[in-house]
Write a structure and sequence with these properties.
elongated, 11 strands, two-stranded antiparallel ribbon, alpha+beta
Length: 382
């Protein structure tokens, strides 16, 4: 029985990136051996076990045989007879198909170390095309490693195109797309996720409105970012929040709140992202008027965002909207005016003797006045 550190931990360690998770593969053992040594089974369908002390995951070396469609259509064989090279050979990219022995030696049967140096995302074998999920994973790795200079190898790009043309995207669930997209949004260059999907034609099958907004793929050379990518880059410079990054990207793909809801439903988006996109689209015209210091628009925007009702932080809306225009004026206006208006409460007016039907109207008037005063104090109006 031999144990090897595998996958991302080896890759990131060689790149000097902090290692977050450590996964191991065990050669020369079976399920009974692992259980006898105190490991706990993690999944009834796959030979994965949790170390009794560290909690790290240890998987038996396994081989896979394609026997169906999609990313679930595989037969998995695991046991003491499976060699390390067989296990590594089933992996997606060469940079993920390296192992490190207990003595620290690197096992690299597919040239992953060379591809690390060349900054290449290259498939291990032609079997790459058997799993459509790998297309999403390679797009995510492009986002994760983009700031290290990694790009998709030409031969691998051709395989991605072939997978799309063959109709493999139909086997990807919307839930899995959403999960991989969210992971990519946490990366240093999240826009690379969409660029890789667009370049091979997958984005047209998966998120058609975004593909249409990004336009046709150009060849090498200087390329001007289309609106969704430009907005995502600006949003990524302001926040690490996946919901805000996704909403900033999709903002220019829809014209109405109803279209925003339909796209969110299609993507199986979480409630936070769905609501942010919907409110941002609904606030599109109001934001333009707010930049011109329109107090009525400013008041309506705060009310739309429920800033008066539940103290909703308007910062997320500012990030999404400002990402479209590369201008921080909206944020300065809202940061000055909204807190001042929220400080005016019904209780404060009641204390001054206001009551009855007039309370609501006077509360709105007092909040508008507080906004005007705050903008003047901030030097935004004279």
């Amino acid at each position: 029985m031999k144990t090897y550190l595998v996958g991302g931990a080896v890759r990131d360690g060689l790149l000097g990136i902090p290692v977050v998770e450590r996964d191991y593969v065990v050669v020369g053992a079976d399920t009974a051996t692992m259980l006898d040594r105190g490991f706990q089974a993690v999944d009834r369908d796959f030979p994965v076990f949790r170390h009794p002390q560290s909690g790290d995951e240890y998987a038996l070396a396994r081989r896979e045989t394609k026997n169906g469609e999609g990313y679930r259509g595989f037969r998995v064989d695991a046991g003491a007879d499976v060699m390390l090279e067989e296990d590594l050979g089933r992996r997606d990219l060469t940079i993920n198909a390296m192992a490190q022995g207990e003595d620290g030696a690197i096992v690299d049967p597919f040239g992953g170390r060379g591809d690390l140096d060349a900054r290449l995302l290259r498939h291990v074998s032609p079997a790459f095309v058997e799993d459509p999920l790998r297309l999403l994973r390679i797009a995510r790795f492009a986002a994760k490693l983009g700031d290290h200079g990694f790009h998709v190898a030409h031969a691998t790009h051709r395989l991605l195109c072939a997978m799309v043309q063959r109709g493999d995207m139909a086997h990807l669930t919307r839930e899995r797309l959403w999960r991989e997209m969210n992971k990519a949004m946490l990366a240093a260059q999240p826009w690379r996720f969409f660029e890789v999907l667009q370049a091979c034609g997958a984005l047209q099958e998966l998120i058609m409105p975004l593909a249409d907004a990004m336009g046709s793929v150009r060849g090498h050379g200087t390329v001007v970012d289309r609106a969704p990518i430009a907005a995502l880059k600006r949003a990524a410079g302001r926040t690490n929040d996946p919901a805000q990054r996704i909403a900033a990207t999709l903002f220019s793909c829809v014209d109405t709140p109803a279209e925003a809801d339909a796209l969110s439903d299609q993507l199986r988006a979480d409630r936070t992202t769905s609501l942010l996109l919907r409110r941002a689209v609904a606030a599109r015209e109001l934001c333009a008027r707010v930049e011109c210091l329109d107090i009525e628009a400013l008041f309506d925007l705060a009310r739309l965002w429920r800033a008066f009702d539940d103290g909703q932080d308007i910062g997320a809306l500012v990030t999404v909207c400002e990402a479209q225009i590369a201008d921080a004026r909206l944020g300065r206006v809202l940061s000055a005016a909204v807190p001042a208006a929220c400080a005016v409460t019904a209780d404060s007016l009641r204390a001054s003797g206001v009551s009855g039907p007039a309370l609501g109207e006077q509360l709105a008037q007092a909040r508008r006045a507080a906004m005007r005063c705050a903008l003047g104090d901030a030097g935004l109006v004279t």
